[in-house]
Each structure stands twice: as C-alpha cells, then as structure tokens.
Design brief:
The chain is of the alpha+beta class. About 40% of the residues lie in helices and about 15% in strands. Strands 1, 2, 3, 4, 5 and 6 form a six-stranded antiparallel sheet that branches. Strand 12 and strand 13 form a beta hairpin. The longest helix has 25 residues, at about 110-135. It is elongated and about 75 Å long.
Length: about 475
C-alpha cells in the first residue's frame, strides 16, 4: 500500500485550540478551547484531560517558545502553530500586541502533512486576527473588557486557581473571539472544514484536504509540464518543515524550484531523472510544502480569482506588506511603493484583466524578474488563476504539411475543446510552440478560446470572500 493511500484525519486527532499572545509586558494565554473536559469528545477524552492539567504559565511558555514554526512533541500531545508578528503602529500604545500564535493541540506522533496543513491554517487564522487587531483592536479589546489593567497583565496575577481560569475563559467564550475559536474547533471536529468570519469582516473558508481528498489521485495528477511554487517565504523556511530523514535530493530540489521552470527543466537543473523529480514533487505537494501551477511565461494569461475581493483595502494592504517583508534584501523593495504605482498588488491586479498576457505587464515595471516575483506571489495566495488556450476543430479541409512535422490528423482527436495546448503537447511529446504553429497554419479550421484551467491537482486553496 502506498503512503498516499492511508491517512490520519485531522478531525480525529485534534484535542484543543489555544490563543497565545505577547507584547511589551508578560505573555499570556488569551483563550483556549475546550477549557474544561467534554464528555461528548470520547475519542480524545484522555488527551484533553492531560492537556487541561497544564498550568497556564507552562502552556504559555510552550506556545510562544518558537518564533518561526511551532512543532513540539510531548509524551502524548503535539503542539502546532505559526507565530505571527503584528505590526504595531507608532501612534498606538507601546503596550500593543506584537506576537500572536494560534496553536492546535493534537494527539502525539502526527504525520508531516497534518503538521504542515495546521501550520498553514494557523497562519491564515492569525493573519486575519492581525488585520482585525490592526484596525479594531480585536484581541487587546477582549483583554481590556474583562478588567485587566493593561493588555499584557498576566492571567496568573489574577489567580492561581483553576476555577478562576475557567471563569475567565467562560466569559471570553461569549465574545466574538471565543465564538470564533469554538466554531473553528467544531468545524474541524465535525466537518473537517472551517467557514468563519473574523471580526465580522474577514472570511476564512478552509477545507482540510487530508480528510476529504483522495491523496493518490491528487499526486498522480502532477504532470511533467507543471511547475511548483513554494508555500513558504523561502526555501530555507521550507527546509525546516521537511522530515528529519528526508533525502538530500529533496533539499536540492527546494533550492532549485522556480515558478518559470516546468518539472522537466527542474529535473535537469537538479541532476535528477524526471521520474525522481516527479516522486519528490508528489511528496512536496503531499507535505503541503509546494503547490502545483503552470510555468510562468511571458505569453501566459491570468484572471483575477473571482473569490478574491479586489475592493478590500485591508487585504490588499496586508498582501502588499507581506510581499514587502519577503523581499528582505531590498533589491525590489523600492519598487513596491512609488508615487506612480502606489500599492503594487492593487496596480498589478487592476491591469491583469486588460493586459492580456504577463508580457504586457513588463512595461509597468520594465523588469521581468520583478514581474516573475509578483506573479509567483499572487499564484501562491491564489489571488489569480491562469487562463489556458483550448483549441477546437470545427471543419474539414485539406491538410497542409507543417514545418514542425505535426500534421493536423495527428492532433485532430484532441481538438474537442477539452484539452489545453499544454496537455496536447504533453500527450504527443512535442513542444507547446509546435502545437501553436500547427494551429496557426490551420486557423481557418481550428477555433481557439481561453478559459481557466480546471485540471491542476492542487490541494491548497485560499478562499477569499467576495
């Protein structure tokens, strides 16, 4: 049996959810759920009982002990999260929250795909909370509401009695934050998916694919003409999420991944056979370290994801700032905000529907490598979707010998409007340009149209509210 056939389900492994924060003063647990034993959760009863024995100070220390990715294995429990740094406005109080971690507590010995999926979801949830905190003091207002002298007065100073903690958590559970975390917990346990509003503004829709997707079917859908995009800011960050016993070839692939290289070229750059590279690509998707896209080329066309709210200034600002944070070396940081361009995310997304191709975006910055970075970033967060060329044969006529050596009769069976040019080229083992040349030579007999690709075997999808 393949390792892709038998999977643990996150809905059966989750024990609790914890919100931990820190700032200018003491760190603290803002909320945890469940905060008392639930008899209806029989399958996780023992693990929950052990979790609830943790002192608040110990749990807080564990939740905030790692600054990049939190993955702690205890005797019978696993803690998973992605600490998120909040931007503190200079005009705000110095006691503003600057670190947040949404921690998922699970049973011990979790496979890597569950770890990476929860790290990702922790980041998505924390990012939405960070936006809410920035605009509406979403987190700090909860603390102030219950009579804390400052947003960072430790809960342990209130009382060391467990009953007091339960009383505080019971009160917090009635707030928007408490209801949010309960809905997140119940959604994972009951449906393996979460659909929630954060602060009644940002909407998160997340499906845990490890519970509902046939993994074998997904990974077998990866083709040599596909490319990979990392789901991390850098290959260095991705390396930290690999299994301890991973092959050196996996590290080599992570160092060479580029969104403009298909897997054939990537295999050549890594000195691997295509079969080896395909196997590694399947595992990177399986581990939630990379997603599958079509290679970015100058002739590519894209459309804005209809689920992405291009009118939402807060999300656009957030993505812009995140992109700026990724370009730490400053090579392109000066281009991300100029008097002419403003917010580069807004600028690019507004031009995509009219430009027709990626190449047409180049004059906007006069720098193709920069455009490549931007498009990769937008694909990573599913802000845009590629539009592919689909040929359709509609009449009979005399066949013309093609300089490419491809006759119309060789490709006619695929000209039904269901196969993209990329797919046809892969089937016939020819270059994409050869198919385009044949189409041009028979343009009176072959219609073509552009539409969004539906065949990417992707397991990860940011779903934005309209």
């Amino acid at each position: 049996m393949s390792e892709f056939d038998s999977l643990k389900r996150v809905s059966q492994e989750l024990v609790a959810v914890v919100i931990a924060t820190s700032g200018s003063n003491e760190p603290q647990i803002l909320f945890k759920y469940p905060y008392k034993n639930c008899s209806e959760r029989n399958d996780s009863y023992k693990c929950l009982e052990e979790f609830l024995k943790f002192e608040e100070s110990t749990l807080c220390y564990l939740c905030l002990s790692q600054m990049n990715i939190l993955h702690i294995e205890l005797d019978n429990l696993t803690l998973i999260g992605r600490p998120t740094h909040l931007d503190v406005d200079d005009n705000q109080s110095s006691e503003g929250i600057n670190l947040l971690n949404v921690v998922f507590v699970l049973k011990s010995n979790q496979p890597l795909y569950i770890v990476n999926e929860l790290v990702e979801f922790s980041g998505i949830l924390a990012d939405a909370m960070a936006i809410a905190e920035y605009f509406d003091s979403y987190l700090s207002s909860v603390l102030l509401k219950f009579g804390f002298e400052s947003p960072y007065q430790s809960l342990t100073r209130k009382s060391s009695c467990d009953v007091s903690f339960q009383g505080i958590y019971s009160s917090v559970s009635e707030t928007n934050l408490g209801v949010l975390i309960k809905n997140v917990y119940d959604g994972i346990i009951e449906r393996s998916e979460v659909h929630v509003y954060v602060n009644n503004v940002s909407y998160i829709s997340y499906i845990f694919h490890s519970d509902v997707v046939n993994m074998k079917q997904v990974v077998n859908g990866i083709k040599p003409y596909h490319a990979l995009v990392l789901l991390f800011d850098s290959s260095k960050d991705a390396l930290k999420c690999l299994p301890e016993n991973h092959s050196p070839n996996v590290s080599k692939v992570l160092q060479c991944i580029s969104s403009d290289k298909n897997l054939i070229y990537l295999a050549h750059d890594c000195g691997l056979s295509l079969q080896q590279l395909l196997s590694i690509a399947k595992h990177l998707v399986y581990w939630k370290i990379a997603r599958v896209v079509y290679p970015i080329m100058r002739a590519n066309r894209y459309s804005v994801n209809p689920d992405f709210p291009i009118s939402r200034r807060d999300l656009l600002t957030f993505l812009h700032d995140k992109l700026l944070g990724e370009l730490r070396d400053g090579t392109y940081s000066d281009k991300l905000y100029t008097r002419d361009n403003g917010n580069i995310i807004v600028h690019i997304l507004s031009k995509i529907p009219t430009c027709g191709s990626v190449e047409a975006l180049s004059p906007l910055t006069k720098d193709w490598p920069f455009i490549l970075i931007i498009v990769t970033f937008l694909l990573r967060f599913n802000c845009i979707r590629q539009i592919l060329l689909y040929p359709l044969f509609h009449s009979t006529g005399a066949e013309i010998d093609s300089p490419t050596g491809i006759k119309l009769s060789e490709i006619k069976q695929y000209l039904e409007g269901f196969h993209s040019v990329e797919h046809i080229a892969h089937i016939l083992e020819v270059h994409r340009s050869d198919i385009i040349s044949t189409m041009d030579e028979h343009k009176d007999s072959i219609f073509h149209f552009w539409r969004e690709s539906q065949d990417l075997p992707d397991m990860r999808d940011y779903k934005w509210p309209i």
